[in-house]
């Protein structure tokens, strides 16, 4: 029998990846409840990160150089102030992680081991247990969280909807509906919240080929948008060029650090093609490499990551995760090239926040991949995501702590079990989700055009209608629709957004764009008009 869960706090954090857990720890000893869709450590992309955390801790590096690389990779729409702020906070957050017992790799002199990834001008990615960075960081944090009495964990619960009170500027978050997979007849209502933090991760599971866990369906994006939160830059989806292409779902990753060590991309005949495309060859910005790999595969040439010369017999020791995943698929990467394909990896867009992780909805913060702070622009610099997660989690925690102590008394939220308004048809749900993934990969993937995007919108509408109010389908189609609508309206190519019908980058469009669900709904009813507000990069919307 499922018992009614308890919260011990009026602050609820939805999501238990790096951003969610770090927020909870930083709020300690203030009581918080963390809602996790799966057992802690499972179902969060953070645990699968291989590269490490980008941070200017090397002797040849500075936060300014890090910010400059981030701005260059972001293809014209990074918020410079945010990039400098996040690069500047990096060392303190690495120190925090050390205090939480994260076992960073050190050289013989005790210095951090750093690796180089694409579009970084120096070795800057702080490594943890070789290519097991995400797993090692999350294990240390989970142990600390479990030993922290102020943190209550609800495992196996997924958020479905935020509850708000008031309208317009008075609107604020007061509660949340949860569901659990093994109790389809019920939903759980959490009330008396002072603050909700969405830390739900990305949108990879809206695509057929992804490196993200199956929970990453864009729920947080949709839930926030339904509560009135502004969505920014939704069209910018990052495809990792070297997912291991062995028909596994999710696709295992061959970390970019392999290319940092000299691994090369070759076609089926062994020809190294990146040298003809970009001066930095395999270490060109990720969007450029992903498109090149996509084109090799589309033209029937195939694509492989050849590590045999650069890493060879060292492979098992230096990249144990990639080695294991390859060997499981019958490929020995020390002696043969790895088949690779681009896979959805990271969403640069998300719920727009300020520099404290606040959304425009009172009482609602967003941290980690679900948020759009302005750091990533049109193309995220490798290994900036774990950094952004910890920096923004700390800033959000600081902000929430001030809010709670200044104008509310900490109380206890309550949870009640209600009869579900919707009994899901799990077969129909699975079919709907599969159709969304097919649609997004075919029509809103590495390359897009007007006709395919319009087709995607029509199909998403049909899938939403066929879902008959299933909250999972509703949230997934809303998140997908934001991506497609934004992609349709950005009539240029920039970073992770490549339009075959608008292949050039248009300097006039070098700005971040925002949308709201209310705006999209209104436009539907008017059937015309452009309801985007536009924000010039670095234009002072963040404080
Ligand atoms: C990788 O290790 O290639 C992924 C790093 C990242 O996405 O930041």
Mind explaining what this structure looks like?
The chain has helices at 18-27, 63-73, 80-99, 133-146, 219-226, 257-260, 286-298, 315-318, 320-328, 384-407, 426-443, 450-466, 471-489, 517-526; strands spanning 11-14, 32-36, 53-54, 114-115, 125-126, 151-155, 157-165, 172-180, 186-191, 195-198, 231-232, 237-244, 264-266, 304-306, 338-347, 350-352, 364-366, 371-372, 414-419, 511-515, 533-536. Among the domains are: 245-342, Succinate dehydrogenase/fumarate reductase flavoprotein, catalytic domain (Flavocytochrome C3, Chain A, domain 1, Alpha-Beta Complex), CATH 3.90.700.10; 426-537, Fumarate reductase/succinate dehydrogenase flavoprotein-like, C-terminal domain (Methane Monooxygenase Hydroxylase, Chain G, domain 1, Up-down Bundle). α1 (18-27) links the parallel β1 (11-14) and β2. By secondary structure, the protein is α+β, with helices and mostly antiparallel strands. α2 crosses α3 (80-99), α11 (426-443) runs antiparallel to α12 and α11 runs parallel beside α13. The chain has 14 helices and 21 strands. The strands form five sheets. The protein has a five-stranded parallel beta sheet with strand order 6-2-1-10-17, with helices on one face. The chain has a five-stranded mixed beta sheet with strand order 18-16-11-20-21. It has a four-stranded antiparallel beta sheet with strand order 7-8-9-19. The protein is globular. The site of succinic acid has 9 residues, from loops.
């Amino acid at each position: 029998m499922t018992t009614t869960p308890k919260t011990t706090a009026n602050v609820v954090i939805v999501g238990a990846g790096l951003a969610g857990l770090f927020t909870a720890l930083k709020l300690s000893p203030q009581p918080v409840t963390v809602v996790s869709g799966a057992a802690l450590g499972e179902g969060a992309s953070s645990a699968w990160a291989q590269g490490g955390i980008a941070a200017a801790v090397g002797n040849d590096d500075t936060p300014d150089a890090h910010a400059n690389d981030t701005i260059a990779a972001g293809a014209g729409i990074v918020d410079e102030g945010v990039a400098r702020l996040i690069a500047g906070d990096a060392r303190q957050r690495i120190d925090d992680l050390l205090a939480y017992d994260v076992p960073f790799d050190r050289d013989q002199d005790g210095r951090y081991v750093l690796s180089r990834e694409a579009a970084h001008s120096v070795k800057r990615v702080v490594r943890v247990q070789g290519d097991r960075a995400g797993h090692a960081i999350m294990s240390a944090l989970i142990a600390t969280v479990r030993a922290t009495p102020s943190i209550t964990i609800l495992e196996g619960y997924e958020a479905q909807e935020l509850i708000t009170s008031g309208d317009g500027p008075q609107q604020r978050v007061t509660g949340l509906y949860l569901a659990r997979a093994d109790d389809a007849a019920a939903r759980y209502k959490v009330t008396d919240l002072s603050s909700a933090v969405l830390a739900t991760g990305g949108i990879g599971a809206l695509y057929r080929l992804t490196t993200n866990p199956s929970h990453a369906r864009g729920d947080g994006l949709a839930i926030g948008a339904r509560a009135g939160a502004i969505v920014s830059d939704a069209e910018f989806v990052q495809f990792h060029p070297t997912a291991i292409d062995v028909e596994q779902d999710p696709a295992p990753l061959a970390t970019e650090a392999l290319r940092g060590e000299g691994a090369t991309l070759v076609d089926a005949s062994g020809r190294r093609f990146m040298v003809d495309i970009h001066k930095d060859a395999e270490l060109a910005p990720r969007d450029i490499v992903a498109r090149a790999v996509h084109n090799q595969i589309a033209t029937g040439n195939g694509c492989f990551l050849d590590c045999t010369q650069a890493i060879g017999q060292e492979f098992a020791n230096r990249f144990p995760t990639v080695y294991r995943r390859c060997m499981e698929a019958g490929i020995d990467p020390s002696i043969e090239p790895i088949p690779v394909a681009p896979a959805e990896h990271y969403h640069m867009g998300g719920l727009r926040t300020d520099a404290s992780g606040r959304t425009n909805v009172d009482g609602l913060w967003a941290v980690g991949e679900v948020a759009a702070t302005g750091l990533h622009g049109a193309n995220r610099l490798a290994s900036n995501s774990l950094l952004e997660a910890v920096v923004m989690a700390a800033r959000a925690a600081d902000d929430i702590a001030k809010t709670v102590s200044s104008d509310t008394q900490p109380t206890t939220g309550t949870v009640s079990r209600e009869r579900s308004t919707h009994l899901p048809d799990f077969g129909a749900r699975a079919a709907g989700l599969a159709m969304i993934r097919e649609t997004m990969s075919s029509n809103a993937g590495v390359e897009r055009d007007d006709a395919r995007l319009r087709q995607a919108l029509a199909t998403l509408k049909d899938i939403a209608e066929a879902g008959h109010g299933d909250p999972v389908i509703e949230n997934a189609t809303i998140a997908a629709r934001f991506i497609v609508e934004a992609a349709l309206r950005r009539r240029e190519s920039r970073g992770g957004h490549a339009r075959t019908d608008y292949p050039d980058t248009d300097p006039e469009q070098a700005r971040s764009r925002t949308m709201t669900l209310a705006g999209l709904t209104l436009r539907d009813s008017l059937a015309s008009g452009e309801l985007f507000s536009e924000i010039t990069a670095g234009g002072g919307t963040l404080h």
